[in-house]
């Protein structure tokens, strides 16, 4: 395994370096000022010759899309709007009606709308709200040929939803202060080690952070989680509004490390390639949870086949490349790999016993946060 | 004989009027029925209502409402007095300036204050060369009261001004001839006449403070709305129960206001003009006070938005500004203002002219919707539309009417408050006089009373317009797919960290709101000077 894995990683690092340089030059999505109007697949390879095609199943090999589709999107317009535009360009007969709101608000909305919901597809930022919708019995099972496109670990075992892109929990750290060996691979070591006193940042009001604490609660129990939260508070952890701010603050040296999703680090590095900022991972614990953004067909969809076909397109080579290059996420299809200074997904060590849909249960997490005095 | 006829007509009209007002109140209260039904289903969770955290939230919310209302009266009433009854220079300019914070959504204010006064805030950076190393923390109770007061005191300022302008000044002149000094005159003659207006404005402030979500959320202060917002994500039962508790708190506030209001003094000579009080040596402090409040409330957000605009940072074509956002916002707000003004007339008239339990209950019921968080009303109407709207709901065609309805439910009290105080100051004897001269009642009302109360009605409509422009949660939930307003666009840009692109709709929102405020001042301002 390691032979194959190592070789792949070396190749990927090369691809990643070129890809990132290409991005910085011609895409400039998250840097200052610039704007690319439309997404064109193949740009990732523009630095390495003209024969590059995105890995995976191209849209061409998928059934055509047409008609009108109502997408309840918990993913922001800034991130996925251009992907929808691209789909519309490919299929002029397709009209996408996106509704952008908070994922969990959309789940509540679908539940309130009952059998008269206009939603065809629910597109979510995390597995938790997909699990919540499925638990409410409001999803239609996806066909096997759609589910089969994504790796098994990134989709619902019951086939109610599939992940479309992945995000890893990480420890961004400042390389001027810490070496790679200074970052523990055990999440519970952080409150104990005095080198992290007054040195770390977190964003407790941020959904991904709450999912992380939920994972800790599911894996390690309420008491141990409470102790961890209290320990971090005692060690003087700083509060930030979101995790992009944490990555920025680590790069600025305002704090020395933090808890954040992986792509925020890549976004900072894209705009400031020389920033003293690197990514570390913990091993087999809540600190290394690999969550997915994903999609489900709503049970009230006008045309379930069409809606499932739309989800299929989110797993196409082009869409996966979009997530890799535009949002710096992990692809969920086996053919593709992430860019930037990121290990391939095989080398991450998420807690193996965690089922992502367990993360739907974050009510008790909010209570726990309030209990230790964190207002979220 | 003739007298009998008049009385019969009056009696018949009053019953009809009460019925119309009752019907409007019933429709406005209908979302509450959904809330009660939800609470009934959630009765298993009732124990949550006495949990420690819930009690803390209750105490925090009451403290916030009391703090903001008190501070708004302390700021709003003296400033209103200065701009109406004294020889303050540039009165019209100050009137506009002092009302202007109303156009700033409090969540933009909160965001700007955090940005400016935060640990490494902009203001600290600017003041650093002057030796200012740190600023007091803006988060928590103090900051929330500060921000909410700065953006809600204009409710007291505007209603008090309106009342001061129609105060019967012959009484003031009489008091002066009786050798009362200025303060004594204010306390014994002016204050009783403007007390209902101060009460109406304070009520709006208290209800706004209770129902606002954005400010406590940004300022990290746990009140009902903030906890309801968290709760609706994972436990709709708890959210419904807390919402109901919030409605109960609102009812208590309505009861308190009702006691404080007492009977306002009516005048047979509304709007007679008196000579202005001379400020003398107090002129400079007065001008400074009139400058300080709007400077703090306006300069901070304008400065921060300006910085966002200049340091555009990242942008994306998906969030490019579209002129239709302005049209959508203005169209919705205009519709809401029109419907609210029309619905407010019968309720305000009944409340002002009739005594007893029924009129009081009618008027109070109009206020209840204001206490139901926009988020909860939004969910209630989604439920209603989805269940009874059939294909119209799926196609999205009834969403905009539902949205206007949500605004009217939320903001009707603004129109009712302003219209009622106008009715109260116009003695019904004027209209009765017209009727004894042979005018039919409806015509007498149209020709005598309506012109006199028009400024109040328009003022109320303008308030509804302004508030609707700023409303966020219900708009988010009920707008049809692809229909964006200034606020929803600003919200999504800001949420996704595209501050430069959030600044543009925010500034346009402020501009459109400011223009509508100018129109409002012109409408009522024929005797500002």
What is the element layout, followed by pairings?
The complex is a heterodimer of chains A (376) and B (529).
Chain A: H1 2-27, E1 67-73, H2 77-90, E2 94-100, H3 103-113, E3 121-124, H4 127-135, E4 139-140, H5 144-147, E5 162-174, E6 200-202, H6 207-220, H7 222-234, E7 238-239, H8 243-252, E8 257-258, E9 260-261, H9 262-271, E10 277-280, E11 290-298, H10 304-314, H11 317-326, H12 363-371
Parallel strand pairs in A: 1-2, 1-3, 6-7, 6-8
Antiparallel strand pairs in A: 3-11, 4-11, 5-9, 5-10, 5-11
Chain B: H1 2-41, H2 52-85, H3 91-99, H4 106-117, H5 122-127, H6 141-166, H7 169-177, H8 182-211, H9 214-219, H10 224-234, H11 236-261, H12 283-310, H13 324-353, H14 357-371, H15 374-388, H16 390-395, H17 399-425, H18 428-436, H19 441-470, H20 473-478, H21 486-495, H22 499-524
Helix pairs in contact in B: 1-11, 1-13, 1-14, 2-3, 2-6, 2-8, 3-12, 4-6, 4-12, 6-8, 6-17, 7-8, 8-11, 8-17, 10-11, 11-14, 12-22, 13-14, 13-17, 13-19, 14-17, 15-17, 17-19, 18-19, 19-22, 21-22
**Structural class of the helix and strand makeup of chain A?**
alpha/beta
Mean pLDDT of chain B: 83
What characterizes the major β-sheet of chain B? none
Rg of chain B, rounded, reads: 24 Å
